[in-house]
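re: that chain from earlier
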Amino acid sequence: MGEASILAASSILDHLEPRYAWHVPGGEVHLDSINELVKGIVGFSPDITTHIVMMIFAALTVCLFFLPIARRYVEVPFGLRNFLEPVLLFIRDEMVYPNMGEKDGRTYLPYFWSIFFFILTCNLIGLLPSPFGITATGNFNVTGALAVMTLMVGVVGGSVKKGAAGYWLGLIPPGMPPGPGGALLKVFIFFLEVIGLFARHVALMIRLFANMTAGHAILAVLAMWLTLTPGMLPIRLFQAMGSVAMISFEIFIALVQAYIFTILSAIYIGLSLAEEH
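^ sequence. v structure.
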């Protein structure tokens, strides 16, 4: 039982951590060999891991779905666009426009559509069987890069709209008292606002990472439990039902986390673009 537990724990780590060996039907793809090959050509290693492979697959999947729809745009939706358009309109009308206004929201809408479907696809890929079943959004580096993108869109967008000085000075709320004491208070509040700006995006990174990691760890533990109790049919049926329920819950979580990341990004970018901020 001890050896089986060690193997089960190892399988959980394989599920959660980026690896350089990608298990595919019939064997393994050694990604470190690809990294060495690219390094020999361009002079540096791209450090491709299984998480990067899943992100590439997610990006290609999103492009595969949306590029044909964009090319064949017609007034009356049909086919796949008929299924996706309500989701696109929900993101626009319920998430972006209420937090950014129609003018700014229309400008930045492609960004929010892109991150919503990219995150959702990455989340759902983690629920597929091998050779997938690897969740890129369970990696700090991935969620951190997404949070940095939202931060940069807000900072750059706010600086373009209000000027660099106008954006950063706009972090100080109006109505500060005059005099030396007021100046010190402005400096103090400015640093608090800057810390809060970065803290919001750090929380954005941690929230997505923690939720996806926790859910998939539970699924891995349930799978481990299923393999460690052979020959007990009632328990195995209970475990199988629990696994199905957890997978259904994980699909719901995948949608919710994509929604939360997108709407919080809309709120943060909207705050950066707001004239009064």
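The beta strands are 21-24, 27-30.
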